[in-house]
Amino acid sequence: MILATSLILSSCGSKKNGFEIKNGVNISHWLSQSGNRQPLDVVKSFFTRSDVEYIASLGYDHIRFPIDEVRMFDENGKKIPEAFALLHDALGWCDEFNLRAIVDLHVLRGHSFAGGGIERERPLFADPAVAEKFYNFWRQISSELNKYSVDKVAYEPMNEPVAPNPEKWNTVLNRCIEVIRELEPRRTILMGPNEWNRYNNAKYLTPPENDPNIIISFHYYLPMLLTHHHQARWTIPVHYPGKLIDDADISTDSIKALVDDYFIRVPHPSMVFNIDVMEKQIMEVIEVGKKYNLPVNCGEYGVNHRAPEADKVRWFKDLYTIFERHGISRTNWDYKSNDFGMVRTPVGIGNGISPEGEPQTKMINAIFGKN
Fold this sequence. Notes:
Structural class: alpha/beta
Distance between the termini: 60 Å
Number of helices: 14
Number of domains: 1
Strand order of the largest sheet: 4-3-2-1-10-9-6-5
CATH topology: TIM Barrel
Shape: globular
Radius of gyration: 20 Å
Number of strands: 13
Largest sheet: 8 strands, parallel
CATH class: Alpha Beta
């Protein structure tokens, strides 16, 4: 019986499903990164059927839904029905408007991409009991979502892992995939590399053999001096493409140290950044996809609104060219917010949610390669 079951699972898993995506958007600060700030009834008004209709009207074909443990599960690991009801509503709207969906377990009580680097070992990678709890979350998520077509809904086990080393992440990730495969042999699963899904760690991923329903995913926010300009502690102009900061603007030792710190944490070949530099970096992920004959997805990319608009638009257009040239699907960060949003809200998530916002037309056009 065990052998027969194994053969059935192997046979089912070897067939490619119809989950195909190209251009999508992340729904941030809804069922993720809002659990300690807003009650569910407030969150409910932030994202509705009309948002999905608008997203579809722009030409997007999929949505990535980050969800957090604290929002979806109580402290005893039990599902919060009201939160899952909102997710079911969203998946139903996606089906109504012919959009695919990616459900991404974004932040755990035992793991967050924020709050330090790999030197701070997260409980997920230090405590087997926490890891088992993580696997059980996916058993419960599967029990809720297995009714949705494998052609329409995909899973992403965890966002931006920060393990002490790639081996620990591979161990946890592949065990999670095994848990999901026991329940859903043909569901598409997105695998992202260690250290915040960095492109240069994709080569360390070890996808399961003979599983065509895997997507290699990575996140791309380089150069950070441009994309995360809101975090910089200066008002120096940042440029793209070309030399990110003019030599004349790096006039003091303190500013130079801050610039050097960015480059230490987010290495790249020089202070000159352009489409050729970005394509060379992204090619590392593409080669991994070719090695395993798996598609590649950029699960997050974006630029904060404080960056110079013309430079931001050029960055988006260059990435569009790279994605199109190499057949990479992508999901920009994010839909509605007051920092990265393609619809910029007047009130930040930390001070209360505003369901309204102003579409950033130039940014949206650039995401779709339009002038």
